[in-house]
Design brief:
Blueprint: E1 4-14, E2 19-24, H1 29-34, E3 37-42, E4 45-57, E5 60-65, H2 71-75, E6 81-85, H3 86-91, H4 100-103, E7 107-110, E8 116-125, E9 130-136, E10 141-145, E11 153-155, E12 160-163
Parallel strand pairs: 7-12
Antiparallel strand pairs: 1-2, 1-6, 2-5, 3-4, 3-6, 4-5, 7-8, 8-9, 9-10, 11-12
Length: 171
């Protein structure tokens, strides 16, 4: 079964020739500009939209879709999320990049002794780095910076993350 992941949102129209203003995830400009197709979710179906052009403009993307030629054509899509197949995103991940849904639920273990310390319940970003939210064995939620010095190994296959359990990290 094909899974879809949101990559942007049509926030408004641009001009009168059917172009859309699309908001997208921070630092994903090059990825978005390389796309040739996105999908709109209509009820339980994903409908493809072919991208004719995409160019950055301030902090949004101006996108022209095939077959959408006027402001009236694009207005019906205002507010709609845009999706791609998850395989498209997975193919473009760097070696140490992961999708959030791959990390949530993984056990968090001490790299020194392999002892389970908790499990991942979420991922967020504080502007400086990504943070993983870990529910510890004592039921506390702790935020751990998702940086190589603290999280040297992510093992998706064995469903665990190994961390350098620095003093005070999980308190």
């Amino acid at each position: 079964m094909v899974k879809y992941i949101s990559v942007g949102k049509i926030v408004n129209f641009h001009g009168i020739k059917g172009e859309a203003k699309v908001g997208y995830s921070r630092n994903q400009q090059d990825f978005f500009m390389a796309l040739d197709k996105v999908y709109l979710k209509k009820v339980d179906e994903y409908v493809p939209l072919e991208i004719v052009s995409a160019k950055p403009h301030k902090n949004i993307m101006i996108v022209k879709f095939k077959g959408i030629e006027s402001i009236n054509d694009i207005l019906e899509y205002k507010g709609e999320l845009l999706f791609v197949e998850d395989t498209v995103i997975r193919e473009n991940l760097e070696e140490d990049e992961f999708l959030i849904d791959e990390l949530v639920g993984l056990n968090v273990c001490d790299i020194a002794d392999g002892k389970k310390l908790g499990f991942v319940v979420g991922v967020s970003n504080n502007g400086a780095s990504d943070l993983i939210s870990v529910k510890t064995n004592s039921k506390k939620i702790c935020l751990i910076p998702f940086v190589k010095a603290i999280v040297p190994e992510v093992d998706i296959k064995n469903k665990k993350i190994l961390i350098n359990n620095l003093e005070g990290l999980l308190e």
